[in-house]
Every structure is written in C-alpha cells, then in structure tokens.
Specification:
The chain is an alpha/beta fold. The protein has 14 helices and 12 strands. The longest helix is centred in the N-terminal third of the chain and has 15 residues.
Length: 400
C-alpha cells in the first residue's frame, strides 16, 4: 500500500487506543484511589492543648486551640449526645484560620475522657450546672474575653439553657441542627436506631469505617479524629454457656457517637460530595459476634439507650427559650425543613440569624467544617466580636 493510501485510510479510522499495559495501570490507579484510610488521627493534629479541670470531684476534659492570647475571644464548643469534644477538631482549625480567636471544646458529662461522680445523670439541669461552673472556673466574670457559645444537637439545647442560666458569661450563641419540633418527633425512633448499631468493634478503624459508611459522619478526615472520642476499650470474658458473659470496660481513653435527630442513612443514598466524602455502593454492617476470651475490643463510650428518660427534658420548650436569649443568635441547619413554627415566626421577625449548610448531614460541623467556620466567622465579624485575620475577609451573607 502506498504512503498516500495509508495516510487517507488513517484519517478515516478512529484513533489508536492506549496499550493494554496503560489500561491496566489506569485501572490499578482507580482501585488504589478508592481504598479509604480509616486510621485514627491524633487530637494534637488540630488542638494545641488537652487538659483536665476538677470541679466538685468531677474531672472534665478540655481540648483547646490558640490559647496563647487569653484576652482573645473564646469559641466554647458543646458536642452532641454520644459525640465528644473531638468532633470540633476540623472546625476549630478552620475558624482560627479565618479570625483571631481561641477555641475550647469540652467532653460533656458521661462522654469522652470526662469522669464524674455520676456519669449517668444527664439531666438538663445537671449538664447546665456543669457548664456554668466550668465557665466560671475558667474565666473571671468581671474581666473575661467575649465568649461565643456553640452547641450541636444535645449540646445546642444545652447551650441555650446555659445562655439563659448565666447570661452575663455569654456574648453570642450558636445552635447547630437542633430544633425543638423535629427533635421531639425523632425521639420515638431513637431506640430503634441505637439498637441497630453494632455493640462492639474489633479495632478503632472498624468503628471509624462504620460511622462513615452508615452516613453518621460524611467527612472521613473528621471521623478519623472524632470517632476515637466515641469508643473505649473493653475486655469480654465468655464462659462455656453462650448466654453467660461478663464485660469489663476499662477507664475511658476516648468518648462515644450518635445523632439524636437523624436515622442512619442508607448506603445507596446518593451523595454529591467529592473524593473521600462519597459512600461506597454497598455496605456490610460489622457483625456483633462473640469475643474470644481476654480479647481486647472496643465499645461505645456511653450507652445512649439508658439516657432515654432525659431526652425530652433536653428539647422541650427549646424554641421559645432560644428566642428569649438576649444575646446575638445564630442557627445553623442541615435543611430548612427542620424549622418548627416558633422558629419560623422568629426568623421572619429577625430575632436570630439563620444559615442552611447544604450537602451535610446532622453532624453539620464535621461534614462541612470550612463552611460552618465561614458562617461563624462572618457572624462574629458582623457583630464586631472578633477581628478577621485577613483584612479582605468577605463575610458570608445569611441565607437558605
């Protein structure tokens, strides 16, 4: 065949595809990129300090960031039921990159590394008293920096009660994804959700994998640091009889997990997040099998099913209480459908600022830490409670 004919035919044919070796290499790269890393991340990757304070024989664990300047504004974080102070890790790092402030995240009674004389007393009155005492222990009421109280779910309800109980200590308030109406409605399904969770895990990595794949936390990086705060080591010794076993739970080295307002998401639910935020197509829930003698396993730090008698007290009357707080208020939600009647009317009257964070689950601050940090920084700058690190900082406008 002449060169002229070869050139003519080559122009009418499709381009030659990559060699089989290149295809194989590409397939291997895709497979490698889909493998997720569930290795735990240490707390000090995001926080500068971890300390314990003792109040009335109760030992509370606190994580902090940027506490070198004690006069700078304080963002004081209260986590949700089953979570721990570590759930604020990524958000703390993100917000301190935007504005001049210090962050303090506490393990609430019964959670994380906090140890009290009665870890089972999670009544709203006891929890409120704990936080008020901690704030007064850390700060002089007559000479304190501005304090911005931020709470998620159960911690959001607690933040509202604290703001009402000791208003002179709180300069601004933020509640994340907790609304009285939807919270109370969800309580009826909570026991079903809790009973569906695995009772134990063979490794911390398995716990992190479960939390991510079940959709409780969509951000893998956040889960890798926060889930360690939701579990604790256990040793189970099993006798010859299947039903007879004893469980010894060691002193908690970390805390526990759960959403109080949202059921576990199905694994085939479509998520539009990129990269590690996507859930795999299929998910096999870790089985709760019997443990061999003297084998170290991990279980939840707190048994939330035993706290049921306190649930209604956390959320009843919350909307009116929130609206009655005189300090500037911010409500962050995962969806606008979560608003109840009182908050809808209050929002129309301009009694608080609201922002909806799209593509996030109940753990809004873990799923979208940068977005939440931007909302909070914008709110604080607008109210002149903090200074932006960048003079060209553009505040995010509130909206749905």
């Amino acid at each position: 065949m002449s060169n002229l004919r070869k050139q003519i035919f080559s122009k009418t044919l499709p381009p030659i595809g990559p060699s089989s070796s290149k295809k194989l290499s590409s397939d291997n790269q895709k497979k490698a990129s889909s493998i997720r890393n569930y290795t735990p991340i240490e707390w000090n990757t995001y926080f500068n300090d971890k300390r314990y304070i003792t109040i009335d024989k109760n030992i509370f664990c606190l994580y902090s960031r940027n506490t070198n300047d004690l006069s700078s504004p304080v963002l004081f974080f209260l986590h949700g039921g089953g979570f721990s102070g570590l759930s604020w890790a990524l958000m703390s790092k993100a917000v301190t990159n935007l504005v001049q402030c210090q962050c303090i995240a506490i393990d609430i009674r019964g959670h994380g590394e906090t140890k009290t004389t009665d870890d089972n007393d999670l009544s709203i009155e006891t929890l409120t008293n704990d936080i008020c005492q901690i704030l007064r222990h850390l700060f002089n009421e007559d000479n304190k920096p501005p304090i911005f109280l931020i709470g998620h779910s159960m911690g959001g309800a607690l933040a509202v009660h604290v703001a009402k109980e000791c208003p002179s200590m709180i300069d601004a308030l933020c509640v994340i994804d907790v609304v009285e109406g939807s919270a109370l409605e969800s309580l009826s399904s909570m026991q079903c959700f809790l009973s569906s969770r695995p009772k134990q895990f063979s490794t911390p990595q398995k716990a992190i994998e479960y939390i991510v794949r079940s959709g409780q936390v969509r951000n893998i990086e956040s889960a890798r640091v926060s889930v360690i705060g939701q579990i604790q080591p256990m040793i189970t010794t099993q006798s010859n009889e299947t039903d007879s076993s004893s469980t010894i739970v060691s002193n908690p080295t970390f805390p526990a997990v759960s959403h109080l307002c949202e059921t576990v998401r199905e694994e085939d639910e479509e998520e539009e997040n990129d990269g590690d935020h996507k859930s795999p197509d299929t998910f096999q829930q870790p089985t709760s099998t019997n443990i061999s003698n003297d084998t170290n396993k991990y279980t939840w730090r707190i048994d939330l099913s035993k706290t049921e008698k306190f649930w209604e007290g956390w959320f009843s009357g919350l909307s009116k209480l929130f609206l009655s707080c005189e300090c500037p208020k911010l409500l962050l939600l995962a969806g606008v459908d979560r608003l109840d009647r009182d908050l809808t009317v209050g929002q129309m009257q301009g009694k608080f600022q609201m922002h909806v964070v799209p593509k996030s689950g109940h753990a809004v601050h873990e799923d979208a830490p940068e977005q939440v940090a931007d909302c909070i920084a914008s709110f604080l700058v607008r109210h002149k409670l903090v200074q932006a690190n960048d003079e060209h900082f553009q505040a995010t406008l509130p909206g749905c």
